[in-house]
Amino acid sequence: MWNRKPRGTRSGAAGVVAVAVPAAVMLALGLWGLDRGGAWRDEAVTLQVARRSVPQIWRLLHGVDAVHGLYYLLMHVVLGLRATGEAADEVVVRLPSVVAAAVAAGLVAALGTRLARPRVGLWAGLLYAVTPLVGHYAQEGRSYALVAAGAAGATLWLTKAVTGRPWWPYAAVVAVTCLLHELAVLLLLAHAVTLALWRVPRRVWGRWAAASGTVLLVVAPLVLVSRRQAAQVAWLPVPGTATAERLLREFTGPADGVYWVCVGLAVVALAAGRRSELVRVALPLAVVPPLILMAVSQVRPVYDDRYVLYALAGAPLLVAAGADRLLRSLPRAATPAGALAVTLAGVLAVVLVFAQQLPLYRQDRTPASRPDNLAAVSALAARELGPGDPVVFLPSIGRRTALAYPKGFRRARDIALTASGPASGTLYGREADAPVLRRRLDGLDRLWVVAESYALSSSWHPAEPTERLKLAVVTEEFVPREPRREYVRTGVTLRLYVRRAPQVRPLRAGPPRIPPPQAGPLQVSPPQVGPAEVRPAGLRVPSRSPGSPPAPPRPAPW
Question: What is the structure's pLDDT at 516?
Fold first, then answer.
């Protein structure tokens, strides 16, 4: 039963150093290469929504992305403080994630210090900081690093609340964390397992239940709204054993040498299970949220690795606890000099881990590490699109490039758009109905297309009428201009199309009709025009009167 303060509560200066060093390291790693030269599609959504007014954001959340509502409002405030400029915006929206990751590293270190000893906290915080998955989301303009920091803070306060500290800070931190992403509510189940392993008294269970009930009441409206928006994650697959293995590698280190060493040390820590206060916190934190989400996703897929990033904090705590258990058994490890040597040896081991995974860190700081680079697409559009040039986005979600980086499309004419995203309360705006768009496209001889990588493939069959019309017109009535003006960036294609030259064949005259013999002089009827030919749908043929010579083919436009 939990009936005393953790051993690391009075750690003094060593505890401060153990917390400060990982936080500083994480801050440095997060700032390294923060400007990748452009935002990718998810960050582009953050950019364009955060630039809207608060009423426009609130209206949007009623139809889409309610799960990110609090984060968008926070980014709206952050962007209000920045210098002007599109290039500055993409860096500014990543800064909160960098700071949150640094805070999370410090909180992981504080957990290790409180539940074990300062060197365990130091090692755990440093391991957290050098984990590539943490570094990746530390540089994302999304909410996941903030959620991870909130989960680590809530877990730390749990260890304080069970020893007599007030429970309202715990409830407040968990509630804010769940409002940043509702799937963080699984953290409550991890904490319930921890309390069960601690065998806390009934009064502690009652106070935790009251705090958890408050959290659920706060989060319930968000859950109700987001359930109506579940189609947004309909693309998620059912997770399997490969998903679990990948997550384990991401939590402990993707490089083989690092992975097996960390798994081995975690097993050593688990061997002390019942005797280790740290294990009873770290194991449920690392295991319960991912397992529950994967189990639920067998029926209704809602699992993605980033949704359980906050659970990663448990993995370095287990690894550090295992290393401490091994090293403290060495001769003279209990002496001051021996303890210092053991601490430095652990730090050196973390440095080697970072060196082993340094290529992954370097790769992650390049634009190629993300699915696309919308800034590069916008720069191409600014160079190629002239005043009034018509452009169509295929599908409409491709408009995120113009919304995140509007400068590149400022001179162009969005031929399908009828209402902008802010005006319509949508992410990508509202497009014209198919008949209206048909009339707009009929008057064009050239058309710029911004297409997603899958949109021009033969396997894509959109269900929405406007998208079907755009695809049919582009593929059947237009052809890429020769010589080609085409620019392909990861995930996005910018291409100039021109209308096909009409292929009109002359109508054939039918055979002369010879009437049956009659009395009187022989009469021959003049030639008659045969039946009209069936032409492919969408082919534009100049009108002419029956029997007149065919019009010459229209020259191909530039």
Answer: 54
Residues 442-454: tens digit of each pLDDT: 989 999 999 988 8
In the prediction, which pLDDT does 373 show?
86
The position carrying tokens 């939590």 is 251
Phi-psi region of 389 (alpha: psi -120 to 50; beta: other; left: phi over 0): beta
Q: For 340, how many CA atoms within 13 A lie in the half-sphere containing its CB?
A: 2
User: What pLDDT shows up at residue 107?
Assistant: 98
pLDDT at 274: 65
Residues in the chain: 558
Per-residue pLDDT at 369: 86
Phi (first) and psi of residue 87, to 5 degrees: -65, -35
Judging by beta carbons within 10 Å of its beta carbon (0-12, 13-18, 19+), is residue 374 exposed, middle or buried?
Answer: buried
Half-sphere exposure of 177 (CA within 13 A, CB side): 31
> Phi, psi at residue 167, to the nearest 5°?
-95, -15
Instruction: Report pLDDT digits (tens) over 118-136.
Output: 999 999 999 999 999 999 9
Torsion angle (degrees, nearest 10) of CA 298, 301, 302, 305: 70
Q: Which long-range contacts (CB under 8 A, 24 or more apart) does 258-266 make?
A: 258/353, 258/356, 258/357, 262/127, 262/315, 262/319, 264/322, 265/318, 265/319, 265/320, 265/322, 265/323, 265/326, 266/315, 266/318, 266/319, 266/322
Helices (H), 200-255: 202-227, 241-252
Burial classification of residue 223, based on how many CB atoms lie within 10 Å of its CB (0-12 exposed, 13-18 middle, 19 or more buried)? middle
Q: Which of 507, 557, 130, 35 is nearest to 349 (CA)?
A: 130
Q: Which residues of the chain are modeled with pLDDT < 50? A: 1, 519-558
